[in-house]
Design a protein that fits this description.
Leucine-rich Repeat Variant, elongated, single chain, 533 residues
Length: 533
């Protein structure tokens, strides 16, 4: 068929009748590859969207890869033509259906040029094609598209990523030995390296392979350390100690020390003590912070003393690392550091009150835990620890790490059967505990009330109002163990009225406990009030 006949058929695609257009499309498609050149040239001649859609449809029906190039040109040249949106999306889908592995290299750059196209369907089908040929260069771009604003693009990019990962992983598991995997990690970077590192993580020999990587230069060493950090295997202590005894970069030293710091539990050996001590004189602040973490967790009193100094460091990150390390490595054998901890907690609290950042809150919380582990079960220092914990709770209601550790320390140092009356806490010191009575978290609220029963003073009325707001929403056990004892200790007019109401409730456990509390209050008075009659 001559070109004139093909041109006539193409012009007939502008027919208003859909059935007629479809018949013309079928006739052109029967011509096969010999019509591709004329169809490609027609993209620049026709502007009517229905004609352009038909041209794309014909090329897809022909299905010959020679149609890819005109479709690529059409998509690229019409980037600003909103009216041709449907045709452009169809064109990208047609390219995907026709593309074969030997087109991968030519298509790759084109796909990169259009992955930020304004049309979501072009981006979506481009993502599908990007993931089609197992090219690891596509991973980073597909991850970006997986966060696209349009659901269609996200879906196609996610599917492409999953297919790419599975195909590559299956091939890798069949073909690549442990030794070759190490070489691939060292030789590559970016998305390609991350793919191989992920394969390493999934192997049974992950720890051994990561250890081998730490003996490789540059990129391999750092990736090996990153995997060891994620694995949290205690055997990594030996690996990183050996590494720290050699020449390393600041990033490698910092990561190696963090691995060591997280693994220590007050049991550092001589080699570990030496490398930790050397790190504290490093010029890099990140290395010093990691060193402080390890020093605090070492169990070596000399290093722990240095970590105590680190808690007062100018850098918030160093202060936090030192406090975290101490909380990990402290035990009763380091009880001699308790007086210094008291001063450091005061400084940390003042700093937190000036700046309520998460770093400052957690630093103070770690110091409270250090005190807890240092004192152990001993009653020596318990009263002082109670005062420290109570001060920490002031203005700390919404600071959960601090609330948890302060309550833990109070619970540890306050006798189960309660303090003697002369040893109970001053009314001004319990305000932080009282503030917790109204928080939403039931467990913390109950712990605070338990501690007030055990350590709160008599005639303290601060807790009556917050208790009154929840008095009819708690169960009998909570009422008997916490609410009624606290109302009895308060003993003011409102507390007595609440106890009277509770004594008249239909629940036997509650009514009996409340009535008993009222009798004790009556018996404690020199003169019986008329209200008791």
């Amino acid at each position: 068929m001559d070109r004139k006949r093909i041109a006539h058929l193409i012009s007939s695609l502008d027919h208003p009748d859909l059935i007629t257009r479809q018949e013309v499309e079928d006739e052109l498609a029967k011509l096969g590859p010999e019509a591709i050149s004329a169809i490609g040239a027609s993209f620049s001649l026709y502007q009517e969207p229905r004609v352009v859609v038909s041209l794309v449809t014909v090329l897809q029906k022909i299905g010959d890869p020679k149609g890819i190039l005109p479709l690529m040109r059409f998509i690229y040249d019409t980037r600003d033509r909103i009216a041709l949106s449907d045709a452009r999306g169809l064109a990208m889908r047609a390219i995907d259906s026709m593309a074969k592995p030997d087109h991968a290299d030519k298509l790759f750059q084109f796909l990169l040029d259009i992955i930020d196209d304004r049309d979501a369907f072009v981006r979506g089908y481009a993502a599908t094609t990007l993931g089609k040929f197992g090219d690891r260069r596509a991973v980073g771009f597909l991850k970006e598209l997986a966060g696209d604003e349009h659901e269609f693009v996200r879906e196609k990019a996610t599917e492409a990523l999953q297919g790419l990962e599975k195909a590559s992983s299956d091939a890798l598991k069949q073909d690549v030995s442990d030794e070759d995997l190490i070489d691939l990690i060292v030789a590559n970077k970016g998305a390609e390296q991350e793919f191989y590192v992920q394969e390493l993580r999934e192997r049974d020999t992950a720890f051994e392979l990561a250890a081998v990587l730490t003996r490789k230069p540059a990129r391999g060493r750092l990736r090996g350390l990153q995997v060891l950090y994620e694995l949290a295997d205690p055997r990594a202590r030996g690996v990183v100690t050996t590494l720290l005894q050699s020449k390393t970069t600041e990033a490698e030293r910092a990561l190696a020390l963090r691995i060591l710091g997280h693994a220590l539990n007050g049991d550092a050996n001589e080699d570990e003590i030496d490398v930790i001590g050397a790190s504290l004189m490093d010029s890099d602040e990140y290395v010093v912070a990691a060193g402080m973490l390890a020093a605090g967790g070492s169990g070596d009193i000399t290093l722990m003393e240095k970590a105590l100094k680190g808690v007062a460091h100018r850098s918030p990150e160093v202060r936090l690392a030192a406090a975290k390390g101490l909380a990990s490595g402290a035990n009763t054998s380091a009880r001699a550091i308790f007086p210094k901890l008291e001063d450091l907690v005061k400084q940390a609290q003042q700093r937190r009150l000036r700046d309520e950042s998460d770093v400052n809150v957690r630093t103070e919380a770690y110091l409270l835990r250090t005190i807890s582990k240092t004192l152990g079960d001993s009653s020596l220092g318990a009263a002082k620890a109670q005062q420290i914990a109570l001060r920490a709770l002031l203005d700390a209601r919404d600071k959960r790490p601090l609330v948890i550790t302060a309550l833990e320390l109070l619970n540890q140092t306050t006798p189960e059967d309660g303090l003697r009356e002369d040893d109970r806490w001053h009314r001004q010191m319990i305000l932080g505990l009282v503030d917790l009575i109204e928080i939403e978290e039931t467990d913390l609220r109950n712990r605070a009330m338990d501690l007030l029963v055990r350590g709160g003073p008599k005639r303290a009325t601060e807790w009556v109002e917050p208790i009154s707001k929840q008095i009819y929403e708690v169960d009998a056990e909570h009422m008997e163990a916490r609410v009624i004892p606290l109302l009895e200790r308060a003993g003011n007019g409102k507390a007595k009225q609440l106890l009277k109401e509770l004594s008249e409730t239909g629940d036997d456990i509650i009514s009996i406990a409340a009535a008993a509390a009222l009798r004790r209050l009556r018996d404690d008075q020199e003169f019986i009030d008329a209200e008791f009659e």
